[in-house]
Amino acid sequence: MKLIVVMSVEDVKDSILAILQKASVPVLSMVDTKGMKPAVSLAFAASWLGKEKQIYNSLLYFSFTDEEKANRVVSLIDAYNNQEKCIFPAHAFVLPVENSSLK
Hints:
By secondary structure, the protein is an alpha+beta fold. It has helices spanning 13-22, 45-51, 67-84, and strands spanning 2-9, 29-36, 55-65, 91-96.
């Protein structure tokens, strides 16, 4: 079993959901989050957040699935990023699940 994680800006939600559907990911969870690209070190993040407006609405998608589907998502995300030439490309990660209560 693998954990597939995808991060993207909210604006491309429909495209990411279509990719997950095309990869036959059966069930997924989605979390709203804020993305940012601080130009300064994290030690100054508090003051940076107060001054800058470069905070982006983002989404984090995740699903527990088999290795084939997880790798397909990564491949489709790579193809999407290459085709769309996004300023904020989507990112996909596959993590191993060593143990779980899911059987």
